[in-house]
Amino acid sequence: MDAVANHCRVGVDDHLHIRWQAPVTDGDRVVLRKGASPGTRVETVRGDRRSVRLPLAGLAPGKWEVRVESRGIDRPLLTDDPGFSFDELRDYAAGARDRTVRVVRAADGVVRLVVREVTPHAEVEIVDPRDGEIRFEGRLAYAGPRPGADARLVAVARDTEVTLTWDARLDGIDYRAALPVDDLAAREPALWDLWLDVGAVGAGTGDAPDVHARLASRLDDATGKRGKLSYPRQLVVSGERELAVRPYYTPWDNLSVACRPTGDGAQ
């Protein structure tokens, strides 16, 4: 079968959905293979012979080939579909998951699946540094809704692990938080890594949070933001020092904040 699929995406139901514009050959099968892995999956194209829905739950992490067996011939599946939309990425990340499956289309149209293990993170969609604060808005990814749960923004100074916290607002999976830059400037200059803690974060509970989610931007499919995306700095006078406070992305697309004396040239 040489037909090119015009739809090839992973749904929130953890199935691979494939559609062709014209019917494929009767009896064609879609096969997932990962080397010699015993987890090979096979699904026959049925019904109108234009679509197939193949379950993906339990696939081992790594890259999986998507192939089509037709009349004894085994070929890679081809598609002209990019494999995702940003809305679909957001919807997929809205549920609780410990692994994700993504469609990857090569330049020649060959389809592969990439399965990777994930932990919850706080997807950052808005960063607004002004008026003495840095405001953050976004969504919990891979944790699922947390109705009624308390939330806090947590800043941890790299190397020293000094920790500052502020109340955050959480509505289902949507969060809002604000970081007062004066609070960072009152401490020793540092790079601060940011987290969103959800559940069991009340003062004096002594319990670990239900979710400890790093602030990051990973659902826009634009990796490598460091050096490409920058935010304005805010100047703060603390004692006899003037410090510059600026949010920035790490090489892993995590969001951190630098608080440094002006003129030292550090990130």
UniProtKB/TrEMBL annotation:
Protein name (record): Uncharacterized protein
Species in which this protein is naturally found:
Actinomadura syzygii
The root-end lineage is: Bacteria, Bacillati, Actinomycetota, Actinomycetes, Streptosporangiales
| Source organism superkingdom | Bacteria
